[in-house]
Structures are given as structure tokens and as C-alpha cells.
Amino acid sequence: MALSYTAASTRANPGPEEARRPRTVVEITKQVEFSAAHRLWNPTFSDERNWEVFGICNNPAGHGHNYALDVTIAGEPDPETGMIIDLKRLRDILDAVLISQVDHKHLNHDVAFLQGVIPTVENLVISFWQQLAGRLDGCTLSELVLYESRSNFARYRGPAEGSRG
Predict the structure, then answer these.
(1) Of 8, 102, 106, 131, which is the most buried if we count CB atoms within 10 A?
(2) Are residues 139 and 62 in contact, defined by beta-carbon separation less than 8 angstroms?
């Protein structure tokens, strides 16, 4: 589990007491794991083009991975508990919103929110962000890192500032 600390002001017009006390923002990372199958395939490509672009990952039967997902959230520790979120609560949210949808599933066929998505690690991490964003009361989703293998992973920090809306 990774922790980092940053001081930041939280309000445009802080009161006198808050103006003297910088807000302490903490990032905490929870890792969850799941296993899933997928096929890298673009329906607009010919069979030859799919094999050229995706190689063995275009196997019509699919292939599997044991994924790991690092979920980093940011927030101010609660003065009564010292936590930005109870890690059991975070795990429950991750299980309900994401892991229960993808674990031991074929990502191309079994996951409604991935229909029409080519399930590359890049597209998966973006889709996972879309599923989790706004579901973490009291803290902010800061970063997702999805490991497809020990040597292949994608990092996503949310939509670019100009595209948020």
C-alpha cells in the first residue's frame, strides 16, 4: 500500500482559522486482483488485419490474464479516525462496482459496460475509471494502474482537464 502526503488549500475563500491551517491531502492505494479472458479484435478489420495488429491476442477463443488493479484515492484524513476512507468500505465498493462484474468473466462477452470496447489494457483502465468515478464519497479517485501482467500495465489519472464535463 502506497501513501503520499501533500498540503493544499481546499476553499476559494477560507475562514480565518482554515486560512492558517493548510489542508493535508493524503493519497492511499488499494490493490485488488481478478482473472478474466478477452480477445483483442476489431470488428471493422478483416481477419487478416486483426491478426496483423493483434497477433495471438486475436485468438477467437480468447486468452486469459490474472490482472491487478491499483486504485489510488485522495482526501483529507478524518480527524476522528485518521482515515480518508475505511479500506474495508473501499474494498466493498470495488467489489460491488467493478470486481464482481469482471472476475472470471470473458470481457468481450460477459461485461455489459465493456460491450463495443476493444479490451486492451488501455481501454480497460479508462472504462474502469468511468465505473468508479463519483462512487467514493468523501474522497477523490486519483489514479488507476491496471496490470495485465508483470511487464504490461496502463496508468490513468482521469480525463484531461479540457475534456471533463
Answers:
(1) 102
(2) no
CATH number for the domain spanning 111: value is 3.30.479.10
Q: How long a stretch of residues is the chain?
A: 165
pLDDT in tens, 123-139: 999 999 999 999 998 89
16 in any annotated domain: yes
pLDDT of residue 123: 98
Q: Alpha-carbon distance 80 to 93, whole Å?
A: 22
Q: What is the dihedral of CA 6, 89, 150, 61, to 10 degrees?
A: -140
In a domain, 164, yes or no: no
DSSP string, 80-135: TTS-SS-HHHHHHHHIIIIIHHHTTEETTTS-GGGTT----HHHHHHHHHHHHTT-
Q: Per the domain annotation, does 119 fall within a domain?
A: yes
Catalytically active residues, by annotation? 57, 104, 148
pLDDT in tens, 83-104: 999 999 999 999 999 999 999 9
CB within 8 Å of 98: residues ≥ 6 apart: 32, 69, 128, 131, 132
Question: What per-residue confidence (pLDDT) applies to 8?
Answer: 42
User: Residue 7 sits in which domain range?
Assistant: 3-158
Q: Is residue 137 part of a domain?
A: yes
